Amino acid sequence: MNGKTRRLLLPLPPGPNARWFSPGGRLPFKFAQLTETYGPVFSFKQGTRIVCVVGRYQAAIDIMQKHGAYLADRPRSIAAGELFSGDKRILLVGAGDRLRKLRKALHSHLQPSIAVKYRPMQAIHATNVLLDILRDPEHHVDHARRYAASVVMDMTYGKTEPTYYTDPEVQKMITYAARFGSVVRLDSHIVDRFPIFKHVPFVTSTLRQWHKEELGLFSSLVDGARARLKDGGPPSFATYLIDQQQELDLSDAEVAYLAGSMFGAGSDTSANAIAFMIMAAATHPKAQAEVQAQVDSVIGRDRLPTFDDEGLLPFVTAFYLEVYRWRPVTYGGFAHRATADIRWGNYVIPAGATVIGNQWAIARDPDVFPDPEEFRPSRWLDESGRLREDISSFNFGFGRRVCVGQHVANNSLFMNTALILWAFDIKEDSAQPIDTMGFTDAANVHVRPFKAVFTPRIPRLREVVESCMD
Predict the structure, then answer these.
(1) Is 329 within 8 Å of 445 (Cβ atoms)?
(2) Of the candidates 34, 99, 108, 116, which lies 20 to 30 Å from 236 by C-alpha distance?
């Protein structure tokens, strides 16, 4: 494979033969069906634009990973990128010096050696989730959201006081994230299909107003972080950006959006992954029991799991990796743009094409994940019970656009999985069965509320939890 293929000598990957193919809603599902029809990689056209969709594991490695240098760019996004985000959201910034600058700033606070430092704070907030569930099990999805919001607000803005799901700034963040999710999908807005409409005020006025509101919130949160630091509060990612703003050559809007992107990318995804973990445990009691057996043998009943136990609890890690596969939060993946021709077998993905790694289909590749609809954490373990090194999760994206915050996110999933399954038996309510496909159709899906029954496994659970927090 190479990126210098003469495209005229090779055809595009097979796909629907239409000058303008419109797959409709629930794109990841539609694309998965087309993968079954056309093969691991298929293509279609929308006018002059070529879209190639990768739907199998090995093809994702061959194309998305090995040719990451040619897929670091993003296709032009008028609605979500230029209008809604003011061309400031790092997720949609194109390849080049500016992207490297922004990712370097994020990497300074999210690289593995730094992510370890957040673990004590994550453990405290995850332990609070146990108390939240004991107090109010019905709203367990909201408790997961509170956890994720607390972690990100602490890391990003130095807000150490309790953060609640109902806090005004959190509610606004969630609203803006939902707005973004609604316009970032392929051709979800008319201006992306017909760019000339970008200059028609009544077509774009809502997007411009949304940008104004979002930038205002992000800027006010940075101001709050600055004020906390002056009052003796802790440093944070936002105050780091303020201190290094000139050296990093960041505008005020870039500082605001870079910090704000931590919430949108980190809180939203982690909260829903934790909710999917609870859903998986409730609907797959055998897998839940296997995790609990290992946790009991290592931890016992008199103390809480900690990060120090991680190496002894491979089934906990396998459980959340299977959650990532079973219900990927970014289930359709984000679009890349090829900056050079990429040869795949006897086909070419031409420079300029939009390339999508369809996470839903890749995670259901039967050659790599036999019986893909079955929830089976043991598929991530080898015969000796250790985590396999020959398969990977693409939950955080591909190549040079992989999510910088993946280490913090994995820590969140490990600690919440270990604690919740140590503390509770989780079951379905027979009167209100769980819809395991109950999630929204968005760039980052949201789990719809569902009923789960939590039964404490630990005698005097509240006392044990509170004694460990003292």
Answers:
(1) yes
(2) 99
What confidence tens digit (pLDDT) does each residue in 49-91 have? 999 999 999 999 999 999 999 999 999 999 999 999 999 999 9
> Confidence band (pLDDT; 50, 70, 90) for 5?
very low
Cβ(66)–Cβ(1) under 8 Å?
yes
User: Can you give the residue range of the structural domain that contains 292?
Assistant: 70-329+364-468
Same domain (yes/no): 226, 301: yes
Residues 41, 57: one domain?
A: yes
| Amino acid present at 55 | G
Q: Hey, how many other C-beta atoms are within 10 angstroms of the C-beta on 61?
A: 15
pLDDT in tens, 231-282: 888 889 999 999 999 999 999 999 999 999 887 778 889 999 999 999 999 9
How distant is the alpha carbon of residue 427 from its chain centre?
A: 26
pTM of the model: 0.94
Distance from C-alpha of 254 to C-alpha of 102, rounded to nearest angstrom: 9
Q: Which two tokens stand for residue 446?
A: 């949201």
Residue 2 lies in a domain: no
CATH number assigned to the domain comprising residue 53: 3.30.43.20
Written as six digits, the tokens of 224 are 């709050």
Query: Does 1 fall in a domain?
Result: no
Non-local CB neighbours of 469 within 8 Å, separated by 6+ positions: 124, 127
Number of folded domains that form the chain = 2
Residue 418 in tokens:
């270990």
pLDDT in tens, 152-175: 999 999 988 778 778 898 889 888
Q: With H, G, I as helix, E, B as strand and everything else as coil, classify residue 428.
A: strand
Amino acid identity for residue 177 in this structure: A
The last residue of a domain, from among 363, 385, 410: 363
Residues 6+ apart with CB under 8 A from 363: 324, 325, 326, 328, 369, 372, 394
Residue 468, annotated ligand binder? Answer: no
For residue 12, the 8-state DSSP code is: P
Same domain, 177 and 245: yes
pLDDT of residue 24: 78
What CA–CA distance (Å, rounded) separates 437 from 75? Answer: 30
Domain match, 64 and 117 both: no
Phi-psi region of 158 (alpha: psi -120 to 50; beta: other; left: phi over 0): left
**Residue 284 and residue 428 in one domain:** yes
432 and 344 in a common domain: no
Distance CA 223, CA 228 (A): 9
Q: Which pLDDT value is given to residue 268?
A: 85
Regarding whether 103 and 33 lie in a shared domain, the answer is: no
